[in-house]
Design brief:
- It comes from Sphingomonas psychrolutea.
- This is Fumarylacetoacetate hydrolase.
- Pfam families: FAA_hydrolase (PF01557).
- GO terms for molecular function: hydrolase activity.
- The structure is a single chain.
- It contains ten helices and 19 strands.
- By secondary structure, the chain is an alpha+beta fold.
- The two termini are 33 Å apart.
- The strands form three sheets. Strands 1, 2, 3, 4, 5, 6, 7, 8, 11, 12, 14 and 17 form a twelve-stranded mixed beta sheet that branches. It has a five-stranded mixed beta sheet with strand order 9-19-18-15-16, with no helix packed on it.
- It folds into two domains: 291 residues, Alpha-Beta Complex (Fumarylacetoacetate hydrolase, domain 2); 66 residues, no CATH class.
């Protein structure tokens, strides 16, 4: 593990799922009490491990202690970390924090123009900034606030999903397209206002039960979505626009959903121009409980290979980078680091979706690889 320090502070006391690139192909790994096992012969994918409830080291091939192995994010690592999921659908919940709700309204009112955002933000925060934090979505208080905002001409589709009964749940990325820590993440080359979205992400089985959590970067294009909510898929789903990792921390007696609810997530952006932005968000401020978001994801849909669910972000960077009043946007070369004490650290450098390595290993490629290795029998 020399040179790789993205693990949680208590990595020796937890159990973690991950995926690594080996000479033969991608393999799921399990880390139990700091010891690493190749689980490909137990179940050749992370999805199958979860569905078969094979989340113990039994039957796995012992690789050694994590501290002694060349596990890392670089291409020169003996076991290069990949995204820790494979066949799961990638879902995301939006506008689950009051701050992010306001930022989505600002994008909409500014029509995707970063230069107009500051004035819109001042007006909105003065009118409703303090009122959203205490409102329970779908409650009688939410209905009253909605009526007031409609009467004032300030209602928005984003406030509907922020305090209305229905959460925003969307598909973030295709199966097998997500990236792991150390990979380059992409923003569209024609976007001029964009940002990372540091989030806690749940891994759920086919029944919708969460089995663990990880960190994620739900890269967002504020200019595209601000011009029209119908551009959400173009704002969210682009080459290299979704990073997960470094591992899935499995739930056990020492790490539960309550730890997710209490998690603090930090963000640090370091630009090649010397620009530095930092921030911390608290999951305690989420407006919809993670279990409720899981329930709504499953309410009218099935996911036979399981799914992952981004829980939303509190942090929307507004610190000016270039001209005053234009806020933050990425530049190529930015190093984005998302961290949480019990989940580790996810680091990715920014490029454009055109310049990032193309996604070329799909489901058919994975199945062919597993068949050649004799892992599908």
């Amino acid at each position: 593990m020399a040179g790789f320090d993205a693990v949680p502070v208590d990595w020796r006391s937890g159990r973690f799922l991950g995926r690594v690139a080996t000479a033969a192909g991608p393999s799921p790994i399990l880390i139990d009490q700091g010891v690493v096992y190749d689980m490909a012969e137990v179940a050749p994918t992370v999805s199958m491990l979860v569905q078969n409830k094979a989340l113990s080291a039994r039957g796995g091939k012992l690789l050694g202690d994590l501290a002694d192995l060349a596990v890392g994010a670089g291409d020169d690592a003996q076991y290069r970390l990949l995204s820790p999921i494979d066949l799961q659908c990638v879902k995301a919940a939006g506008v689950t924090f009051a701050v992010s709700a306001l930022e989505r309204v600002i994008e909409e009112r500014a029509r995707g123009d970063a230069g107009a955002a500051a004035a819109v933000r001042d007006r909105l925060e003065g009118a409703i900034g303090g009122g959203l934090h205490a409102v329970v979505p779908g409650s009688a208080e939410a209905v009253t606030l909605k009526a007031t905002l409609i009467a004032d001409g300030m209602w928005s589709q984003y406030l509907e999903v922020a305090i209305g009964p229905d959460a925003e749940i969307f598909t973030k990325a295709p199966v097998l397209s997500t990236l792991g820590t150390g990979a380059d993440i992409g923003v569209r080359s024609d976007s001029t206002w964009n940002n990372p979205e540091p989030e806690v992400v749940l891994l759920a089985d086919a029944a919708g039960r969460a089995v663990g959590a990880m960190l994620g970067n739900d890269v967002n294009l504020r200019d595209f979505e601000g011009r029209s909510a119908l551009l959400l898929s173009k704002a969210k789903d682009n080459n290299a626009s979704c990073a997960l990792g470094p591992f899935v921390r499995l739930f056990d007696d020492a790490f539960t959903m309550d730890d997710v609810r209490r998690a603090e997530v930090s963000l640090r952006i370091e630009g090649m121009d010397g620009y530095v932005l930092t921030g911390v968000s608290s999951m305690a401020q989420i407006s919809r409980d993670p279990e409720e978001l899981l329930r709504q994801t499953m309410s009218e849909h099935q996911y036979p290979d399981g799914f992952v669910l981004f829980l939303g972000t509190l942090f929307a960077p507004t610190q000016d980078r270039d001209a005053p009043g234009r806020g933050f946007t990425h530049k190529p070369g930015d190093l984005v680091t998302i961290a949480s004490a019990r989940l580790g650290r996810l680091s990715n450098r920014v490029t454009t979706s055109k310049a990032a390595p193309p996604w070329s290993f799909g489901i058919a490629d994975l199945m062919a690889n597993l068949a050649r290795r004799g892992l599908l029998a």
